[in-house]
Structure formats: structure tokens, C-alpha cells
């Protein structure tokens, strides 16, 4: 099987995506002239863009909050990045099939959360899907020139299984050689939660923390006004389908097939892989989730993207306080929403007729 370079560099795609998310969030503050838009600091972090925003009236807290958040993101990235050879995730992957390796609190927490997510999703979310992700050309892998054979795919899929990730105390182990953990779909959300908690502990009453589109909001963006976040149209990235209003510690995350993809035999394959089949997910264009933590929103957006319209309602029933917007990959566009999302989501008038209940 011949190989080639990815259709579009993954890091470039991710940075462009994150920059657009930040711009969409910021643009929603420009329409109101009664209050100045929130003050914001941006910087590159964890292979994407990060930002911290506060109301203009709280600008005096901005730099210190951004500095603390930057340090938190850098620390967590050093622990869980699979691109850093000295990270704990990299060591865990190298030592797969051997003795347990010591891990930090952050790494342990992410692994434990991921194991719970695996159970919740019936294996649709699997932190050990690293070999499959690389097999399809993402996260340092190379893109197959032609669609892989079932036998080649199943040989890689045999290296995936979150039940073979063992976490005891401050040590972790992958049971079989060749297994790999990958923090996509959980690590960024977890990092946002850590930064959010630090801001709260420091007495920051109003702040929005964003890491590559994983956001969590505290207080208000303006005087007594919720933070407002645009939800992108997956078929036209220059437009939003509506606006989310968030406060009270709510978090939001989005997964989509427009973010990172490869082309094989002229067909586009998204970066989100179903660990159970081994194939990239087909049929979904975008999923946006509101939850009570950024890690949960991150996990659930990936989980629901894999589950699709049929499997998502049952998963959502098991997760109180989690609301979602699901857009299948077909036209005309259909926007499926949970009943509780109405308290947060206002669709653009042009898409009002596209809204359907998720049952």
C-alpha cells in the first residue's frame, strides 16, 4: 500500500479552525454599541489557538488571567502531547505491554475520565484509538493512497481497546505492545476546566476561556449579558446557524467533519474515527454540545458525532445537563436540537425552518 502526505496539513487546518472560532465568538460582540466588546488576549497553544476574554470593565484582570491560563495549558501539553517524546502520554505509548509508568494528576484524571467515557459510549469514545487515528493519516500518520483493505484495517484495530488501559493510583499501563493513547476529544476540554477553576479560585467573576473551540464561561461578557458564541454552518464556514448564550460555568465544544480531513480515492474522510469499526465516521457534519464542564462537552461532542442521530438520544438521556445540536452530512441542511438547548440557542432567521427535535 503506497502512502502520501496529507491532503492538507493537520496543524494548519486546526489553527485556521480555532482562529475562525475565536473570530466568530468575538464578532458577536460587535453588534451592540451600548457596551464595549470584551477585552481579549490570544496565543498559540496545544497545536491550536487559545484565548482569554473578560468584560472591558474587568480589563485589569486580563493579563494575569491569561498568564495563569497559558502556564496551565503549557503544563498539560507537556504531559499529554503525543508529539513530545518526553511527555507522559509518549512514555505510556513507548512502554505499552511492559511495566506501569508513573503519571501526574492531570494525566491520571484525563485517563480516568476517558475510561468512563468509553463505558458511557459503548466504546464509541476510546482514548486508545491512537493507532487507528494514525493509520488514517492524522496525528503524525501518513495518508493511504488507496482505501485500505479490511485485513490491514483489522490488524490495526486489534491494537485498540480502552479496557486494556489500566490506571491504578499514580501509575498507568497499556496492556499490549503497539497500543497508543491519544488525548484528542478530551485533553483540551480538561485543560480549559483546570484554567477555569483557577480563575474562579483567584476571584475572577467574569471570564471566557477558549482552547481550540473548547470554551467555558464564567459570569457575563457584558454587564448582565451572557457570553455569546456563534455556531458555525458546517456547509458554509463563513456563516453561523445561530448563537449560543452561556453563563454560570457552562461549557461548549464542537466536532465537525470540516475541521480536519484527508482524501483517499477522491473521497473525503474526517479525522474522527469510530473505534468499533475502525473507519472514519460518515454521515455527520457537525455536533455542538453544551455541558457543565469543558471536558464533558469535549468528550460528548466526539461521542455524539460517532453515535449519530440514531445513537445520540440514548446517550444524552444518561448525561443530565448536557444539551446538543446535531447536523447530519446531507442537504438540505437539517439541524437537530435537544429540548433543553432552547434556553441557550437562537437560530438565525434563515435557518428557522431547518430546526428539528432530536428524539
Short précis:
The chain is built from eight helices and 19 strands. The chain has 359 residues and is α+β, with helices and mostly antiparallel strands. It has a domain at 79-174: ApbE-like superfamily (T-fold, Orthogonal Bundle), CATH 1.10.3980.10.
Q: Can you tell me the CATH topology of the domain at 79-174?
A: T-fold
Helix-and-strand structural type:
alpha+beta
CATH architecture of the domain at 79-174: Orthogonal Bundle
State the CATH class of the domain at 79-174: Mainly Alpha
Topology order in helix (H) and strand (E) letters: EHEEHHEHHEHEEHEEEEEEEEHEEEE
**pLDDT < 50 runs, ≥5 residues:** 1-23, 29-33
Strand content: 25-35%
Number of helices: 8
| Helical coverage, percent range | 25-40%
Question: In this structure, how is the largest beta sheet organized?
Answer: 9 strands, mixed
Name given to the CATH homologous superfamily of the domain at 79-174: ApbE-like superfamily
Distance between the termini: 43 Å
Got a strand count? Answer: 19
Shape: globular
**Radius of gyration using CA atoms only:** 20 Å
Which strand order do you get reading across the main beta sheet?
Answer: 2-3-8-9-12-15-16-17-19
Report the mean per-residue pLDDT as an integer.
90
Task: Give the SSE layout.
Layout: E1 3-4, H1 10-27, E2 39-45, E3 48-54, H2 62-80, H3 88-94, E4 101-102, H4 105-121, H5 130-135, E5 143-144, H6 150-157, E6 165-168, E7 171-174, H7 187-201, E8 207-211, E9 214-218, E10 227-233, E11 236-246, E12 251-256, E13 261-264, E14 267-270, E15 284-291, H8 294-317, E16 323-328, E17 335-337, E18 345-347, E19 355-357
Parallel strand pairs: 17-19
Antiparallel strand pairs: 1-5, 2-3, 3-8, 4-7, 6-7, 8-9, 9-12, 10-11, 11-18, 12-15, 13-14, 15-16, 16-17
